Amino acid sequence: MAIERPTPEQLDALAQRLHMHLTTEQASEYLALMQPSFDAYDLIDAQPDEIPPVRYPRDAGLRPSKADNPLNAWYYRTEVCGASRGKLAGRTVALKDNIALAGVPMMNGASTLEGFVPSFDATIVSRLLDAGATITGKATCEHFCLSGGSHTSDPGPVHNPRRHGYIAGGSSSGSAALVASGAVDMAIGGDQGGSIRIPSAFCGTYGMKPTHGLVPYSGIMPIEATVDHAGPITANVYDNALMLEVIAGADGLDPRQYAPVVEPYTQVLDRGVRGLRIGVLLQGFQLPNLDPRVADKVRFAIDHLQQLGAQVSEVSIAEHGLAGALWQPIGCEGLTAQMMHGNGMGFNWKGLYDVALLDKHAQWRENADALSATLKLCMFVGQYGLERYHGRYYAKAQNLARRVRAAYDQALSDYDVLLMPTVPILAQPLPSATASLTDYVARAFEMIGNTAAFDVTGHPALSIPCGQVEGLPVGMMLVARHYGESTLYQAAAAFEASIDWQHL
Description:
Elements: H1 8-17, H2 24-46, E1 74-81, E2 92-96, H3 123-130, E3 134-139, E4 159-160, E5 163-167, H4 173-181, E6 186-191, H5 197-203, E7 206-209, E8 229-234, H6 237-247, E9 277-281, H7 292-307, E10 311-315, H8 320-341, H9 355-361, H10 373-389, H11 392-414, E11 417-421, H12 437-445, H13 452-457, E12 461-469, E13 472-479, H14 485-498
Parallel strand pairs: 2-3, 2-6, 9-10, 9-11
Antiparallel strand pairs: 1-3, 4-5, 6-8, 7-8, 7-12, 11-13, 12-13
């Protein structure tokens, strides 16, 4: 099928948008010169796309009724059975709804994407199925994944399974809620500013944001390639380590992956913490909105780790605050360029593109007013930075990120693990339907003070439950060197085995 050729009038308008001016004669001559390029487009259009084959049968499934979805944590229910044997045989898995599952609808929490059906499986989906998992559906996620609360998804708010009417965290809200409620054994989340760890802290699950690039992001709708992460959310440490063993490693399709180092994570879980050097990050306890009850639970857990034999002392990393600030231009300008202007895929990277997703997501411009307030806010900041300052702050933030990473790396040369609260607050009530714009946005971003930094630097970070306050979970975050996931699991497993967090 031949692509549509521009008219002279269209070319003249296009030139003006590029700040150029053409005479009528020039426009006609340029049109003639452009024809060989368009012939090449025709040749490309005639070729079949190069996408992975779908190897396990499935049907589209269905949207569950409210009665069958009390937390609103499911977007779509289905059943895709994997191999008859493997590490995950007999385990049920939910996928965050920004992950491609061929033949099953995906809307990434946003009405502008509703109706899109992926034609291939994400790499991690294929790996889960090859390992014997059964995928039982797509978990509700926040509107294009732009919220640490659970109130921005167009399918409606996700309720915390431990207190109805309260935030479950985001943006992997449904993933954590389904695991915490026992609806599935395991789930996959995504994390660009804390979106695996935040809902894990609020719901009482174990959430691992792996080293940037350890888990392939191929087939997952990106926000910004330099902060995109995917990882496991589970009810215990062993399942988390097991799931990471299955999904980690290079796939040859994701430029986020440099030279990922994969280890047998489940083999370190009985090593204990005796002699492990834990640095308690002072700045992680200095967030202005830190609830003292959260701090008390985390400090009790620190004392317990010390009783188990860990060597614990405080460490100061002045760059921790800067790391969070760097997220603003990287996240906002980056997502505006890649996810929005780049129609969900962006440019200038080699890997697996979802052409159908690009076509569908490009339609956001036809109903931009329907985008969430959280996404609009990030786009306004990002577009201003791109237009007024030509992306210089994105560029400088990426340069400064190397300094910040080096500061954490320096501390991690003296310590095996850094420790701090995952989020500074307890789960808050879901905003009402009449909440002000300010309150709506505040509930989305008030908890990212400690989490966003490690999306910028790429360090692995694991949130583990370490107690409750009035029935609401508290999360403790452990951070290690790049590809140091085994150390995180070692510490988490020792804590989990020695004490019941639900009685703390």
